[in-house]
Amino acid sequence: MASPNSTTLVLVGEEAPTLIGALGRFANVRAATLADATDDEVQQWISQTHAPYVVHDHDPLGHVASAWVEFFDDLATLGTLDLEVDRALDSLDRGTMSMPDYYVILDTETLAPTWKHWWLGVLAEAAPTRIILGSEPTFSLARTLRRLPTGRSWPEPVSWLHRVARAVPDRVGIDRNEDEPPPQR
Fold first, then answer.
1. What is the tens place of the pLDDT at every residue in 90-108?
2. What does DSSP assign to residue 57?
3. How many other C-beta atoms lie within 10 A of the C-beta of residue 180?
4. Of 62, 100, 130, 161, which is least surrounded by CB within 10 A?
5. Rounded CA separation 34/91 (Å)
6. DSSP character string of 99-119
7. Exposed (0-12), middle (13-18) or buried (19+): which is 25, by Cβ within 10 Å?
8. Residues 36 and 129: beta-carbon distance below 8 Å
9. Collapsing DSSP states into helix, strand and coil, what is residue 167?
């Protein structure tokens, strides 16, 4: 249901609403703060745009990310993580949710370690060019929109989301045996 003519960016971080608000002056960008919207509301909003760029702060994998972080911080069970992965895959299959073209991660220096491993490890391992760091002092979202990196798109989520429990912080991206069972908690 996402707009096939738009490039979608999801901003992650406390400064996302401020940056999104500053994009209102650009005619080729449709931007909104949608962190509290439902996946359906976000999909409808995206599908109604004809702008070349769509920027918002609603992470479609937010529940999976939270479950992954909580699992490795000993605050949740593997069952919770598996449930969130299954829900996300179901929503992606039904078209009530879609992966953005890019994630722009703000404030990386202040992220908790496990969150860093999610954004810069798990997601970056799936599609490295789809994760953009927006932490340097000279970061400009407008400049980023003009210079988006090219590279392979996201692989089919079913091919990597079921393996997130195996993506152990501090070891994400290190070669491992794919036949290893997921870590037990």
1. 999 999 999 999 999 998 8
2. -
3. 8
4. 62
5. 18
6. --SEEEEE-GGGS-HHHHHII
7. exposed
8. no
9. coil
